[in-house]
Amino acid sequence: MIQRSILGVSLSLALLSSCGNPPAVNTFTGNYAGTFAVVNTNDRGDLSLAVSGDGSLSGIITLTSASATPKPTTSVSGTIQNDGTLVASYKYPGAFPIATLKGNVTLAAGTVTGTLNVSIPDLADAGKVTLNLTKK
Question: Residues with Cβ < 8 Å from 75, sequence gap 6 or more?
C-alpha cells in the first residue's frame, strides 16, 4: 500500500514537472507600418511588418523613392528577438541580389526604431537602413 502511494506521488510529480510554463510571447508581437531610409542616399520607402508571438516576421517593402512605376515592391521575412536583435532578408525582382538586414531595434511607446546593417553576397557592408515603424 505504501509503495502504491509513493508510486502515485512520484507519477504526479513527474506529470507536474513536465507542465512547464508556456513560452513567453515576443515583446515585438503585432503589426507595424512606417518608413525606412537608406543612410547617405536618397533611397527610402514604406515598410509594413507582422511579428508573430515566436518572433518570426514577414512584411512588404515598397521603394517609394524609385522613379519606376509601379514602385518596386517585395516581401521581407526573418526574426526578431525580445532584446531587439533583428535578422531579415529581401530581394527585389530582377537582377538585384538577396539583401540581409541585421541589427538592433528598440520598441518604445508603440514605435520601433533602429539602424540596421545591409549586406549582399560579396559585400558584407552594403550600407545602413534606418527604421521608424508604428504599431497598428
Answer: 58, 59, 60, 61, 90
